[in-house]
Amino acid sequence: MVAPSLKLQDLIEEIRGAKTQAQEREVIQKECAHIRASFRDGDPLQRHRQLAKLLYVHMLGYPAHFGQMECLKLIASPRFTDKRVGYLGAMLLLDERHDAHLLITNSIKNDLSQGIQPVQGLALCTLSTMGSAEMCRDLATEVEKLLLQPSPYVRKKAVLAAVHMIRKDPELSSIFLPPCAKLLHERHHGILLGTITLIMELCERSPAALKHFRKVVPQLVQILRTLMTTGFSTEHSVSGVSDPFLQVQILHLLRILGRNHEESSETMNDLLAQVATNTDTSRNAGNAVLFETVLTIMDIHSAAGLRVLAVNILGRFLLNNDKNIRYVALTSLLRLVQSDHSAVQRHRSTVVECLRETDASLSRRALELSLALVNSSNVRAMTQELQAFLESCPPDLRADCASGILLAAERFAPTKRWHIDTILHVLTTAGTHVRDDAVANLTQLIGGTQELHPYSVRRLYSALAEDISQQPLVQVAAWCIGEYGDLLLEGNCEETEPSQVEEEEVLALLEKVLQSHMSLPTTRGYALTALMKFSTRLRGDNNRIRQVVSIYGSCVDVELQQRAVEYNTLFRKYDHMRAAILEKMPLVERGGPQVDEEAKDNKSASQLLGTAAPVPTEPQATKLLDLLDLLDGTSEDTQHPPPLAPSPGGALVHLLDLPCAPPPPAPIPSLQVFEREGVQMNLSFIRPPETPALLLVTVTITNSSKDDVTHFICQAAVPKSFQLQLQAPSGDTVPAQGGFPITQLFKILNPSKAPLRLKLRLTYNHFGQAVQEIFEVNNLPMETWQ
Fold first, then answer.
1. How, if at all, do strands 723-726 and 694-703 pair?
2. pTM metric for this prediction
3. Pick from 71-75, 143-147, 207-211, 778-782: least confident
4. Which parts of the sequence belong to the GAE domain (predicted)?
5. What's the pLDDT at 693?
6. Residue of 148, 657, 753, 785 with fewest CB within 10 Å of its CB?
7. What is d(CA 332, CA 318) in angstroms, rounded to the nearest whole number?
8. How far apart are CA 774 and CA 717, in angstroms?
9. Which of 56-60, 194-198, 228-232 has the lowest mean pLDDT?
10. Which strands make up the sheet holding 758-766, listed edge to edge?
11. Strand partners of residue 448
């Protein structure tokens, strides 16, 4: 005899009345025991009541798998009360991972053919929720028949079931193509909305369906025009806008049909202009329709005037009080800035105002768009605004802002002095947040601008005297003092206020840097080298410098100790060569960012291997530089290869300086190494003829999906016999639908010509999820290493 159990309402009250989690578990365990006992007794009148209680327990997070077979029994029951609970239980307790879900296929098929509308609705809802691909294939013909049933209730649910079937098995597209054309004549908005969604799914998964439905563009245009011109309808109106849900879906479908199709785009241009000018924007529903209109205009072959109108709409969105609307506008303008740069430029002042937003997501989007709007004509004004933002921006935005200003200055600097002043301002304001190559870029810029050497060294000396906490600034200043300290002592700079700097002041400042607890080992290396070079610029004796250098001969830092020991040896044994060894760095020729990408790739080999960088940067713990390399100022960040063995033919050409050159190598085929959900990675290869051991690998990331790829990071590793240098990528976002790709350059040195293997790690955000992929590429073409 089964003990009496609680009713559903009593069970809910008792669970809610439990004061502790232990009491709640006790009530649920006791009731689950009653439910199991009832199921074993097989009382058909109590089965649906017991299952209803079990479903409530399941929704609270407790195990309820033992009720799966009871769901099947209730679905097979002829009583509607049993079917209702049975189908609900199937939707909650069953999915594709359980083989039991296949057992209800026949029951669903029987219920779909019965002709009882409530039962058909239950079966269609269950199929739309948990139907697997196998179930969809078995029941596709039944759903097709229901698409043309006279009852709107059944037709609407059948359309939604068809959408689920297409998503599960795109091969079923041919079954649902004919009914869609008839369903477009429906007056019922629910059925029409479901039909538009079904057509969208068909077009995105079948090129034949896309071509087929381009014929109905005039009909879709007429439906949308009717929605706009009809008067106020209480049934379908939302905030005074006639059925905005249906309008948005039709506009989305028009965008799919008009993409890359001139004739369809021409048909919808007039309607889009009408929607863009007549939609009420005082409520959020109107803004939703207007935003979808803008996306459609930008994605099809629309007229130039219509595209300008769309950009102006987004500009008005920037003035909206709703932060969500402003964020959407900034994101959309960022996608359009490449294709409609001049139109977006008209709203530059509004975009800059958005930098002052307190919301972090808005200010980040405004920063990205502001950096994209910088060009040669507005670089001074925009840089001034960005520098003001840099001084007060949140810490998590400083790195992006600083890097963006430096890149913009490098691309569009009107004069070299302005370029130097801009970098110095960034280093002074946010030096700890700049990219690793900022120090090398500034030293290279100063070294190549001979007329500004006095001005630069004075500015840097003044900045260093005020603040020694910004490590990149200290490194550049130390390098500049070491190179041009004689100009600092002369004090004949016409562009700054005349002031006399004494030798003792300079030495005291460099010693202060060496002794500061804020100085990194790299910074101390700069300061020690600057002292050594300054010894050849002094007019007096070098005893103070020799004493400081000798102190660091016993430093715990291996790199700093080696420098000091080598410098001491230079003082003791090779003092007659010291002035020649510590001469000023020669000018380093460097192409600007406007240089053609392919030419830059060809020069990168000599820049990486043969050209000495102007300053030492981050030391490598595993590699000690020899004396002459160090004194020549070779960059420690650069990988130093072993001596290469050139081919005899090439050696003769270089030695004799003959005008002949070896024939150009055959092109190396590109390689696709990654593809996931529309995101592809392709590798292209170049081996500079002058450096056969060097391989330049250009990584290209493309995105053909419907969602942007953001925060993209690519990391690589090679075997120990190789040397790898990763250049900074062109960005971290790949726009959807074939937007501008990300490119990144790998420089790989292979002196032994061993077979090349790459290990890659990709991290990015896509469709709202964080993705990480780690894989190895070992099928590179033989031409990359032989």
1. unpaired
2. 0.64
3. 778-782
4. 666-781
5. 84
6. 657
7. 11
8. 11
9. 228-232
10. 709-717, 758-766, 769-777
11. none
From the number of C-beta atoms within 10 Å of its C-beta (0-12, 13-18, 19+), residue 44 rates as: exposed
Q: Is 699 helix (H, G, I), strand (E, B) or coil?
A: strand
Partner residues linked to 734 by β-bridges: 709
Nearest to 756 by CA among 704, 717, 713, 711: 717
Kindly report each contact of residues 615-621 with a partner whose C-beta sits within 8 Å and lies 24 or more positions away, as own/partner: 615/439, 615/440, 615/443, 615/475, 615/476, 615/479, 615/526, 616/522, 616/525, 616/526, 616/529, 617/436, 617/439, 617/440, 617/475, 617/522, 618/436, 618/522, 619/521, 619/522, 619/525, 619/559, 621/558, 621/559
Return the half-sphere exposure (C-beta side, CA atoms, 13 A cut-off) of residue 100: 17
Neighbours of 472 (CB within 10 A): 25
Max mean pLDDT range (522-526, 535-539, 739-743)? 522-526
Alpha carbon distances (Å) from 618 to 607, 621, 635, 638: 18, 9, 8, 9
pLDDT of 174 strictly over 60: yes
pLDDT (tens digit per residue) in 240-266 = 788 889 999 999 999 999 988 889 999
Residue 299: how many CB atoms within 10 A of its CB? Answer: 17
Look at residue 492 in the predicted model and tell me its pLDDT. Answer: 64
Tell the residue number behind the tokens 């049934």, with chain if given.
235
Helix H, strand E, coil C: the string for 213-268 is: HHHHHHHHHHHHHHHHHCCCCCCCEECCEECHHHHHHHHHHHHHHHCCCHHHHHHH
Asked if 105 and 138 touch (Cβ cutoff 8 Å), the reply is: yes
pLDDT, tens digit, for every residue of 559-568?
Answer: 889 988 998 8
So what's the pLDDT on residue 654? 38
Q: Which distant-in-sequence residues (6+ apart) come within 8 Å of 523 by Cβ?
A: 471, 474, 475, 478, 513
Q: Is 402's pLDDT higher than 70?
A: yes
Check residue 256 and give left, alpha or beta (phi > 0: left; psi -120 to 50: alpha): alpha
Instruction: Report the 3 state secondary structure along 131-175.
Output: CCHHHHHHHHHHHHHHCCCCCHHHHHHHHHHHHHHHHHCHHHHHH
Whether the pLDDT of residue 641 is over 60: the answer is no
CB 593 within 8 A of CB 677: no
C-alpha span between 471 and 679 (Å, rounded): 38
For 520-647, where are the alpha helices, taking DSSP H only? 521-534, 543-551, 558-573, 575-581, 597-609, 627-631
Give the torsion through C-alpha atoms of 424, 379, 320, 740, to 10 deg.
-100
Residue range 201-206: mean pLDDT, rounded:
90
Distance from C-alpha of 58 to C-alpha of 42, rounded to nearest angstrom: 21
Residue 168 is encoded by which pair of tokens? 């599960």
pLDDT, tens digit (0-9, with 9 covering 90-100), for 21-48: 999 999 999 989 988 888 888 778 888 8
Angstrom CA distances, 641 to 35, 604, 750, stand at 75, 15, 9
Q: How far apart are CA 124 and CA 146, in angstroms?
A: 10
The Cα–Cα gap between 327 and 321 comes to 11
Distance linking the first and last C-alpha atoms of the chain: 84
* Greatest C-alpha distance within the chain: 111
Tokens of 316: 């008005």
Encoded amino acid at 145, one letter: K
**Using an 8 Å Cβ cutoff, are 558 and 624 in contact?**
yes
Q: Are the C-beta atoms of 5 and 35 separated by less than 8 Å?
A: yes
Cα 430 → chain centroid? 24
Residue 644's pLDDT is 40
Are 102 and 135 spatial neighbours (Cβ–Cβ below 8 Å)? Answer: yes
- What are the pLDDT digits (tens) for 583-609? 887 766 554 443 344 344 444 433 433
